[in-house]
Specification:
Length: 524
């Protein structure tokens, strides 16, 4: 297998996406995670662009000694000096320099002739090469440059000491067969091509960034430049998780592999999404909410028999903590019965019929039936409440000054008692959560909140997804309501109820022959 170098530019090209700006401390945290993920090269920023970017690149260079750090620069001496200085403490480093090469860029952006561009490329590569052992050069907008001038520029920088040639599809214009063929021509025609490594950098304007990068690998490149979640300018860059898993899943067909550790992909994706405040599309491959979830009854039936019937990857191996079965109006009896049994309840034929009819009525009114709603329906069928706790009501006092105060009435379904708990916080969600926590017999950490709009207009509903950590485990609760604060509160309660149900699965002493024997029991 050929080993493909994964060059991550989430913190440079990814951060150039409108609204994706990261604070220096956020960059450092993400860089640590990227190193844990197993990327080979990190491009932490554009040192000349701001003091904050310079400081972040410098700190990352000092701290992450096990990964190559790349300083980014235009073909300008001041840029090169800043990149060299910011990365000087790195154990392994390189300089990445770029200069436009297409006619449209030369005419309207650089306002230089081809001769001037070649001379500038030579001068700046020679200048930068004296500071670093590895120098990567990118002829920007290469896919709209034309072979003759592209070959001339590449030959010139190789002569001056460039060690890596990155040929970018800067505006996402190329088709896969065109992009792969371009590398083939360059490697065959350019003098000195056998002395350098080649790299691909693809943008996603036509949705072809991953396909183009795979075509480049087929053509012989040994490095691909990627970003987590595919973030970046305009429609973004080649997605790290999609490229890595395409190579991993189709390893025999591609004849290539990476050093990325898949079990850290999901956590890295979530970290970048939160830091940039960029939600991940539900249908995003690999890390999207629906990537490993199934609602169609035929698919669910196949999955319950053998997961490989409808899944080509194992979500657990990617660190994705999600159930494969999503219950909705397309779900069949087999999947519904299976999910109910997972919740610790067995229904007889009459109860199942009553429950199934109620389920279908609810599924027709909303897109997805969540676990806490499922338990309510099952409880109605067996005539008892199955959730350990019920959030009966919530009163909230809020405003634009001072702390928010929440009064939460919670019923303990095991004892039947109701109590009122008061919580305070700087925000309304914090206040409600503080109130609910007081009713729980265990410590629960509010780990994450996702909010989504389900419709538009004044009667719009919002969906809240809350992640809770308790007893070393992670639980997710979901609720959809017109009041997004109540949606968050009920989602938190749903997650906590999952933790409470796990708490009830414990060992207790059972009397037998005068001796205590430990047995495992489950109390629904």
């Amino acid at each position: 297998m050929r080993r493909i170098t994964i060059f991550d530019t989430t913190l440079r090209d990814g951060e150039q996406a409108p609204g994706a700006t990261l604070a220096p401390e956020q960059k450092i945290v993400i860089a640590r995670q990227l190193a844990k993920l197993g990327v080979d090269v990190i491009e932490p920023g554009f040192p000349i662009s701001s003091p904050g970017d310079f400081a972040a690149v410098q700190q990352i260079s000092r701290e992450l000694q096990g990964v190559e750090i790349c300083g980014f620069a235009r073909a300008v001496k001041a840029d090169i000096d800043a990149a060299v200085q910011a990365t000087q403490d790195a154990q392994r480093r390189r300089l990445h320099m770029f200069l436009s090469s297409s006619n449209i860029h030369l005419d309207f952006q650089l306002r230089k002739t081809r001769e001037q561009v070649v001379a500038l490329a030579r001068e700046m590569v020679a200048y930068g090469r004296q500071f670093v052992g590895e120098l990567e050069f990118s002829p920007m907008d290469a896919t709209r440059t034309g072979d003759e001038f592209l070959f001339e520029v590449i030959e010139a920088v190789i002569e001056e000491g460039a060690t890596i040639i990155n040929i970018p599809d800067t505006v996402g214009y190329a088709l896969p067969e065109e992009y792969g063929a371009m590398f083939t021509r360059v490697m065959k025609s350019v003098r000195g091509a056998d002395r350098v490594r080649f790299s691909a950098h693809c943008h996603n304007d036509l949705g072809l960034a991953v396909a183009n990068s795979l075509a480049a690998i087929k053509a012989g490149v040994s490095q691909v430049e990627v970003t987590v979640n595919g973030v970046g300018e305009r429609a973004g860059n080649c997605s790290l998780e999609e490229l890595v898993m395409a190579l991993d899943t189709r390893k025999s067909a591609m004849g290539a592999e990476t050093g990325v550790r898949p079990e850290h992909i999901f956590a890295t994706s979530q970290m970048v999404s939160r830091a940039m405040s960029f939600p991940i599309a539900f249908n995003k491959p690999i890390v999207g909410r629906n990537a490993f979830q199934h609602e169609a009854g035929i698919h669910q039936d196949g999955l319950l028999k053998n997961r490989s019937t409808y899944e080509i990857m194992d979500p657990e191996s990617l660190g994705i903590p999600r159930s494969m079965i999503i219950l909705g109006k397309h779900s069949g009896r087999h999947a519904i019965k299976h999910r109910v049994s997972e919740l610790g309840v067995e229904l007889d034929a009459e109860q199942m019929e009553s429950f199934y009819n109620a389920f279908k009525e609810l599924a027709d009114r909303q897109k997805v039936v969540h676990d806490h709603q499922l338990l309510e329906l099952v409880g109605a069928a067996v005539n008892r409440m199955l959730e350990p706790f019920t959030l009966v009501s919530t009163q909230l006092v809020t405003g634009n000054a001072g702390h928010r105060v929440a009064s939460c009435t919670i019923r303990n379904e095991e004892t039947g008692s109701e109590k009122v708990y008061t919580g305070t916080g700087e925000g309304p969600v914090e206040a409600v959560v503080a109130g609910i926590k007081q009713a729980l017999p265990f410590e629960a950490e509010f780990a994450d909140l996702e909010l989504y709009s389900l419709s538009s207009g004044e009667e719009a509903s919002g969906e809240a997804i809350v992640t809770v950590r308790a007893n070393g485990q992670t639980y997710r609760g979901v609720s959809a309501q017109r009041d997004i604060l109540m949606a968050a509160a009920h989602a938190f309660m749903a997650a906590c109820n999952q933790a409470a149900r796990d708490e009830r699965q414990r060992k207790i002493p059972a009397q037998g022959n005068g001796a205590a024997e430990e047995v495992e029991i489950t109390i629904p």
